[in-house]
Amino acid sequence: MVSGIPRTVAEELDAADPLAAFRERFVITDPELIYLDGNSLGPLPAATPEVLREVVEDGWGGGLVRSWQGWIDWGARLGDRLAEHVLGAAPGEVVISDSTSVNLYKLAAAALDAAPGRGTVLMDAEDFPTNRYIVQGLAEQRGLRLVRLPSDLDGGLDLDGGLDLDALRSALDGDVALVVLSLVSYRSGALLDMAQVNDLAQAVGARVLWDVSHAAGAVPVDLAGTGAELAVGCTYKYLNGGPGSPAFLYVRRDLQSRLRQPVWGWYGQRGQFEMGPDYDPVPGIERFLVSTPPLVSLAAIDPALALIEEAGPARIRAKGLRLGRLADDLADAWLTPLGFRPASPRPPERRGSHLSLYHPDAWRICQALAADAKVICDYRVPDRLRIGLSPLVTRFTDVWDALARIRDVVADGAYSSRPADLARVT
After folding, report:
1. Considering 22, 26, 35, 128, which one is annotated as catalytic?
2. Residues 103 and 289 sit within 8 Å (Cβ to Cβ)
3. Which of the residues 236, 250, 267, 358 is marked catalytic?
4. Inter-axis angle of helices 129-142 and 100-113, nearest 10
5. Is 128 a catalytic residue?
6. Which residue among the candidates 23, 118, 187, 237 is catalytic per the annotation?
7. Annotation marks residue 288 as catalytic
8. Which end of the chain has less neighbouring CB within 10 Å, N or C?
9. What is the pLDDT at residue 426?
10. Rg value, the chain, Cα
């Protein structure tokens, strides 16, 4: 693209945006701040504080323990809404519980226990660290062979990005019990073909456990249509459920009674309040629950999910793609001459709703943007500036202004005085 992309182009896109009004339904305390980190923590829906006030004051404060009569099945009820409106699954196949990491452990362990005689586990070598560590631990405990599949760190202009499907195809055989993958790469944003991967694995009798954390709420997911069997994901990124909001898990209905997860808790017990002496899990999706949910955090998912339901995954994805194209064009025009290069697949259809840019001083630039230019994005090792585009909140003018501020901060060079040591929170 030519370098002269006028701001009026972004203004016209905002004026024609069918989702523009959703921005007003989020809390925005500083109109000058451009927030491009919704892929880490989604912004606060304006309706959430009142919902939480009602749960705390009217439910906890007024109803006390009696309020559990209305609360106890929230995980399943919200799970059904996620299934229908976000994940492409059926009622009774999704439940909200625990964290993504705990859910991944539960489903991975259950899948491995259900595959006796198979001794190999496959995972993406560049998957999110917790996923890799959990899979590594399970393989070590069970004496299984762990294969780390090669994965392109960047993507860029001419590369597919993400997992090497040829390597996956070559590694799949009758000894593989489980494949653990993320639908959208946390670092590069590379988007996998879920149906193709499922077909490859199922052809040799292996199961795939998907992490859809960086997809849910931004990219349409079709678990049923692609033949997916197992999935987990979080609710605090594009689903805007709030920091530490409970995660979700999916188990295809025909598998539920055949899998037994390793953490036997009373919320998965048949006749829960009969307090029986031995564990006897319910036959449905609730058998993958463990214990009392964090109700206040669970409640925050309700108003956030209502926004996703109203907007619809197709419209959200369509805007995300348009935002991504504008970001790509501006980065090519303004940032490539300053030492940046793409670190995500092109075009945006081949990734989720975030993109990464390589720069040798990406961490210093990230700090300078937050401190001096009111642009919040984030950093990922080894040298990536990650930019999250949240379609319900991010405007086209936000993308234009943010890329212009990044250009100016880098051209100024003052970022070089920022600390080189990586902070715990980036």
Report:
1. 128
2. no
3. 236
4. 30
5. yes
6. 237
7. no
8. N
9. 75
10. 22
Of 386, 398, 407, 415, which residue is the catalytic one?
386
Report field, pTM of the whole predicted structure over 0.85: yes
pLDDT of residue 332: 96
236 is catalytic: yes
Question: What is d(CA 180, CA 350) in angstroms, rounded to the nearest whole number?
Answer: 20
User: Distance between CA atoms of 4 and 11, rounded to whole angstroms?
Assistant: 15
Residue 146 has φ and ψ, to the nearest 5°, of -105, 125
How much is the pLDDT for 1? 39
374 catalytic residue (yes or no): no
Q: Please say if the pLDDT value at position 387 is more than 70.
A: yes
Single out the catalytic residue among 37, 211, 378, 401. Answer: 211
* Spatial distance between the Cα atoms of 97 and 362, rounded to a whole number of angstroms: 35
Q: Is the pLDDT of residue 155 over 80?
A: no
CA dihedral 336, 340, 345, 350 (to 10 degrees): -70
Amino acid, single-letter form, for residue 210: W
Residue 341: predicted pLDDT? 96
CA neighbor of 256 nearest in space, from 235, 287, 300, 211: 287
Q: List, for residues 83-108, the tens digit of each pLDDT value.
A: 999 999 999 999 999 999 999 999 99
pLDDT at 156 over 70: no
Q: Give the containing element (helix H, strand E) for 319.
A: helix 313-330
pLDDT at position 223 over 50: yes
The pLDDT, as a whole number, for residue 2 is 43
- Tell me which H or E stretch contains 321: helix 313-330
Active site residue 22: no
* Residue in the block written with tokens 């539920």: 256
User: Residue 72: which region, alpha, beta or left (left: phi > 0; alpha: psi -120 to 50)?
Assistant: alpha
